[in-house]
């Protein structure tokens, strides 16, 4: 879930920032401290996806701003190069009281050790299973999506049967930043670098050997591969051709583990294929990466070949490490109770309601805002269906003189879906705005008459609740702009839109059409609902967010006394005081296992954040 659902492109450059750099930014008004103080508290906000600069990142960074206002020393932690000043400007926040640290992506065990340095650690990474060791910690949960939610039935069965045999075997090699999702078949799988991929190697007392098969299947030619450590020292130079060939690199002893950077030239697999929409830049493909310290046991070999068997999706022990779990909506809170068996106070996302100035004269237009991606990839926004429904209304004569604007971010991998939407809009008064600048998004939110949302349409909310809109940030933005919402009657939309008071909720396309016809035909009624919507949107303002955070911080004693009570075996739980439950360390991959992070891009170096937020 993103601010305007990722519709705006990043107008500021995000690369090249040095670690530990302070930022200047735009202040979210009215959030200065009013009694709650965190003076002397050293706090960290961890988010794997700062580079995506979306709604989840604004949610996280707003906590950072409020903490800094309350007197804490705040550090934003991530694995990608991020320009903190650009991040603040893009999100409309003042992060000048914070610093950003780019940290090595060595997996959750390493990050847990790092968290011991802080009085307060806030984890704001979607589907993370990190068990921090800070004195106090909070988990900002965008949705408690099961770790195996996208696993096929056979894999879930294998995890249940074979997983317990392998658990406790920690993979010696994991993938950090700069990798694309795995590909290949049953006999061999491989992962591509983006030209600069990071391998994290476990600690070892003696000299060790890193072994892997390296190739470039489908590449136009061979290339040179350089392996470096984080200090820039060259460990090996290798010629890589099309076929996979074995490679062995000797590594020195390391007490805390080693990070290797695989650097090479890249190519675009779409070159010479005009019909291809593949925008990836591929470096080298790595298969069967492993660490040899003598004979490998059968369990170790199995863990290397099938890393997804190592994580038990039912193991929720990591939650015991948190002082409080926060939900981004009532819908998410209810599912946290069902799936995680935890109570979770609600910390609604902060919405920049003050930036939206409702236009007195409204364009007769329907607006839809959301990322373009095909159904089956998270909570799809259903632009194709909405354009079809608008076409039916327009051709029937029910909306004379009306238009439709469809706005949203679109990554290269989703261009085929975007073209489907464009084809459906042909010969209709429909304008498609892919990757529109934020100024365009705000203008449309403040000038269009009706806002549509259909996220979750066609999905089984009971079986796949993560496909629904967990909150609905763009709905609140539309309301703040005076654009009357007509949204699907599901999930987070139910707690935002009061049916018949400040908008409408629908269950069928026929109801959507009926409510839209009424609003088009009865301007006084539309104006009345718009005025109620503008007033109600203030419930989710930056100022309201700051008040909620401080209430939760006080109730959970998150500020406490700086430096007290970090336990050697982990922080106490609110209920039992037990140490956090153990679970295998993760590499850069998703909670469901299986290698590098999924998505349309590299794991942490420019790929998309999961849209389930």
List keywords for this structure.
six-stranded parallel β-sheet; seven-stranded mixed β-sheet; single chain; alpha/beta; globular; 24% helix; 613 residues; 15 helices; 23 strands
Report a brief summary of the structure.
This protein is an alpha/beta fold and 613 residues long.
Structure, described:
The protein is globular, with a radius of gyration of 25 Å. The strands form four sheets. It has a seven-stranded mixed beta sheet with strand order 1-4-3-2-5-6-17. A six-stranded parallel beta sheet has the order 20-19-18-21-22-23, sandwiched between helices. With 613 residues, it is of the alpha/beta class. The protein is 24% helix and 20% strand.
> For the largest beta sheet, what order do the strands appear in spatially?
1-4-3-2-5-6-17
- How many strand units? 23
Radius of gyration: 25 Å
* Measured distance between first and last alpha carbons: 4 Å
Mean pLDDT comes to: 81
**Proportion of residues in β-strands:** 15-25%
Helix content: 10-25%
Q: Structural class from helices and strands?
A: alpha/beta
Globular, elongated, flat, extended or rod-shaped: what is the shape?
globular
The largest β sheet comes out as: 7 strands, mixed
Uncertain ranges: 1-19, 566-613
* SS field, number of helical segments: 15
Secondary-structure blueprint of this entry?
Elements lengths: L20 E2 L19 E5 L8 H15 L3 E6 L5 H8 L6 E5 L5 H8 L4 E4 L12 E6 L11 H9 L1 H4 L6 E3 L7 E2 L4 E4 L3 E6 L6 E8 L7 E7 L4 E7 L4 E7 L6 E7 L20 E8 L5 H8 L18 E4 L2 H10 L23 E7 L13 H13 L7 E6 L6 H11 L4 E5 L3 H10 E6 L19 H8 L3 E5 L4 H4 L7 E3 L2 H13 L1 H15 L4 H14 L58
Parallel strand pairs: 2-3, 2-5, 3-4, 5-6, 6-17, 18-19, 18-21, 19-20, 21-22, 22-23
Antiparallel strand pairs: 1-4, 7-10, 8-9, 9-16, 10-15, 11-14, 11-16, 12-13, 12-15
Helix pairs in contact: 8-9, 11-14
């Amino acid at each position: 879930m993103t601010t305007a659902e990722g519709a705006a492109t990043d107008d500021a450059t995000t690369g090249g920032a040095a670690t530990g750099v302070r930022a200047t930014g735009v202040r979210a008004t009215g959030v200065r401290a009013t009694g709650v103080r965190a003076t002397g508290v050293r706090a960290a906000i961890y988010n794997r996806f700062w580079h995506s600069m979306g709604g989840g990142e604004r949610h996280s960074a707003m906590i950072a701003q409020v903490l800094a206002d309350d007197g804490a020393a705040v550090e934003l932690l991530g694995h990608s190069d991020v320009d903190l000043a650009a991040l603040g400007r893009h999100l409309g926040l003042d992060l000048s009281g914070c610093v950003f640290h780019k940290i090595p992506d060595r997996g959750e065990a390493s990050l847990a050790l790092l968290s011991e340095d802080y009085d307060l650690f806030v984890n704001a990474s979607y589907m993370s299973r990190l068990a921090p060791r800070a004195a106090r910690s909070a988990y900002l949960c965008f949705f408690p999506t099961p770790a195996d939610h996208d696993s096929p039935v056979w894999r879930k069965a294998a995890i249940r049967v074979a997983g317990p045999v392998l658990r406790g075997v920690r993979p010696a090699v994991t993938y950090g930043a700069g990798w694309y999702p795995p590909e290949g078949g049953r006999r061999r799988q491989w992962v591509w670098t983006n030209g600069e991929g990071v391998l994290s190697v476990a600690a070892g007392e003696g000299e060790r050997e890193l072994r892997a098969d390296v190739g470039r299947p489908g590449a136009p030619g061979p290339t040179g591969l350089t392996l470096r450590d984080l200090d820039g020292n060259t460990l090996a130079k290798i010629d890589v051709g099309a076929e996979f060939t074995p490679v062995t690199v000797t590594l020195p002893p390391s007490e805390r583990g080693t990070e290797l950077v695989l650097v090479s030239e890249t190519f675009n697999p779409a070159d010479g294929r005009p019909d291809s929409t593949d925008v990836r830049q591929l470096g080298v493909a790595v298969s069967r990466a492993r660490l040899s310290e003598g004979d490998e046991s059968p369990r170790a070999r199995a863990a290397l070949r099938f890393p997804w068997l190592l994580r038990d999706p039912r193991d929720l022990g990591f939650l015991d490490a948190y002082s409080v779990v926060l939900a981004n909506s009532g819908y998410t809170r209810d599912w946290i109770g069902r799936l995680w068996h935890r109570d979770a106070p609600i910390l609604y996302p902060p919405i920049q309601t003050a930036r939206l100035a409702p236009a007195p004269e409204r364009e007769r237009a329907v607006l839809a805002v959301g990322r373009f991606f095909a159904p089956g990839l998270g909570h799809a926004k259903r632009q194709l269906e909405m354009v079809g429904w608008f076409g039916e209304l327009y051709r029937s004569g029910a909306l004379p003189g009306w238009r439709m604007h469809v706005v949203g971010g679109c990554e290269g991998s989703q261009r085929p879906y975007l073209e489907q939407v464009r084809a459906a809009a042909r010969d209709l008064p429909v304008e498609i705005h892919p990757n529109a600048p934020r100024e365009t998004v705000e203008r449309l939110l403040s000038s269009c008459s009706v806002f549509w949302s259909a996220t979750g349409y066609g999905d089984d909310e009971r079986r796949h609740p993560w496909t629904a809109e967990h909150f609905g940030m763009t709905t609140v933005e539309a309301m703040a702009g005076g654009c009357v919402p007509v949204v699907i009657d599901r999930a987070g939309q139910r707690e935002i839109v009061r049916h018949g008071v400040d908008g409408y909720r629908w269950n069928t396309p026929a109801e959507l059409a009926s409510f839209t016809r009424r609003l088009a035909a009865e301007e006084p009624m539309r104006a009345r609902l718009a005025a109620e919507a503008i007033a109600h949107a203030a419930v989710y303002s930056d100022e309201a967010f700051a008040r909620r955070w401080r209430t939760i911080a006080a109730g959970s004693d998150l500020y406490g006394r700086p430096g007290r009570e970090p336990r050697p075996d982990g922080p106490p739980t609110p209920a039992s005081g037990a140490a956090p439950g153990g679970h295998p360390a993760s590499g850069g991959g998703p909670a469901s296992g299986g290698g590098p992070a999924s998505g349309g891009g590299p794991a942490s170096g420019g790929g998309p954040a999961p849209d389930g937020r």
